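Reopening this one. Same input as before:
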Amino acid sequence: MFTLTIPVSTDGLSAIKADLTRKLPDVKSSHRCEAIARGLGFRTYATALAAVQAGATNTAQVRGDLFAAYLAEHAFAVSPAAFYHAAAKLALRDVWERTPKLTMWGIGSGGPRRKEDGRWEDFRDMNAGFKEARAELLSDGAGKPFLASLSFLGRVTPTKTIRKGTGSYWLKHIAENFACSYPEGEKLGPTYVPNGVLIAAALHAGFKMKTYVDNLGYDELNVSFNMSKPCLEELDYEVRPDGARAQDRRHREAMKRNRHYPLGSATF
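Same output, byte for byte:
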């Protein structure tokens, strides 16, 4: 389960409203607006607009249960997940704007690749690929893995400094195997998590990252975080009991037991 807090502004409210208008076309417009306000902790939509315009608030905790309950009172059966996904896109945009090199797949989009005709990508090809990968981070498909990543990251212990061995690509594999749910109980994960979405969720959650450059000067997709490596390892063993790290750990533990109790020795 996750807790989602998002930046709130007039543009942000409009973005959530537009997203839900597209996804919930059968819900009456006025009911959508009032449900959004309830889901962000406001008494009415007018109250929400007045608060953000006056600068009285700049963040809000997202409550899918209150959003869905208001619509249920007006005969609309809507999953809270729709509201969480719309709010997640707003949180993703906030990170997206603060992190100019972040894409769906990590930092940048990697070095040049061979095209179908066998030629290498030039600058224009690479720039087009970067823009496409960056736009994908704001797509509908990014919301669910973002929320699943937040659920996973809620179990991670932060450290004062960025640690070696906390690579985002490793973490994204743990996150996408992490069993989790929306706050109201609906199943959320396991679900596929792109590397860039995991990074975005970590930055949204307040973790710091370190980026890298390869020997040709291109940004590496993966980053490291200020996270406890022992905590991450324990989570990996828990979440992926049949994974390579878990198997290696069991092997080491078995070897240690055999050294203490050689074959045929008495144990009493």
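So the earlier flakiness isn't reproducible anymore. For the record, Residues 81 and 186 are 8 Å apart (CA to CA).
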